[in-house]
């Protein structure tokens, strides 16, 4: 794996070569990943996998024509051919009035912020195996667990470098450590499956393996003997594990390309109160040790903490440079980048601020409702906001979580759901996108 300095230099060299070959402008992104994953099942080692890969992508502009290309071969001759092919492709591409690099006067010029994303410790495969064994053993030890899909532990390191022909160059690295377990409870047709996992940047922040396994086992057992639920309109409580998907749908409607194409259910909602005034949603790319933190965006622009929803109000769109030009606006530092192709737009570490009530208080007045822990299918229309997904979880009766339920469908419209949304006070930062327990009244539930 290249050092950060070497990665940045590799991207800069490719951009310089493109300019010498006749490109009016260019940018290059280099990415490499290395990971080790150990999995076990029923107390025996099942797999040890080591993967390493690197990719470099080049985008060139000739006037308003552009093309991009990528390669995993870093041989100088291969990269020279890459440049020639990309230039030739750009010459045949259609003109795009919105294509181009990010505005030069908005590039990040300061020293990159220190986000503590890279852990110097790299566990040996034997240590990963021990952690995987402990997680699966703890899950299988839960009374009622009858079989296992396995346990695992992994570690990884990734590096990213970006260089542009108009003055930006930067690189950063990040590490990951994770533990997981997945088990089954019950027998025959009545078997139920569930899992637990935890991922962090630094191993010091990782949950104990036995705690991860115990959670997996208890979740599987709790799902045994599900009952049917009659159809009707009722409150639905979303577990924090899956409540973040609602924020994901919101973000899908906020990205600049969707707005520019006029294909978003939020098209006419800028500046409107989409949620209750008690709801604030934050995107924070500068969170220390955050799973999605980054010091700059995919076009070399600075990033900052921002309220996407401020006391219920939609504050703006998530814009890369191309969609910003199309909308007559400025990019917002939300460009996302892969190894090839033009940048898109996206978010980093997102969370919904906690409310004031505990989860118990949030559901105390629910006579009959659902506590949802799993969502199935992708029945969400990003243009209309219509929402319909399969679900499983638990019945809420007289303010208490009770029997397991399965084979149900929950439906509504995202705008109506947002207006009715109320968060609990149990926010915890465990994922790239985090929410507390969420209550939404008035959802349509169809039983199996």
Automatic annotation (TrEMBL):
User: Which residues are in the Metalloprotease TldD/E central domain?
Assistant: 119-224
Keyword Hydrolase tagged: yes
GO CC annotations on file:
cytosol
**What biological process terms from GO does the record include?**
proteolysis
Q: Where is the Metalloprotease TldD/E N-terminal domain?
A: 34-90
- What InterPro entries is this protein classified in? Metalloprtase-TldD/E_C (IPR045569), Metalloprtase-TldD/E_cen_dom (IPR045570), Metalloprtase-TldD/E_N (IPR002510), PmbA (IPR047657), TldD/PmbA_N (IPR035068), TldD/PmbA_sf (IPR036059)
- Name the UniProt key words of this record, in alphabetical order: Hydrolase, Protease
Spell out the residue ranges making up region: Disordered. 329-358
Gene3D superfamilies hit by this protein: PmbA/TldD superfamily (3.30.2290.10)
Q: What residues does the Metalloprotease TldD/E C-terminal domain cover?
A: 231-447
| Superkingdom in the source lineage | Bacteria
Q: Name one GO molecular function term.
A: metallopeptidase activity
Q: Name one Pfam family in it.
A: PmbA_TldD_1st
| Family from the record | Belongs to the peptidase U62 family.
Question: What is the name of the protein in this document?
Answer: Putative Zn-dependent protease PmbA
Q: Which gene encodes it?
A: pmbA
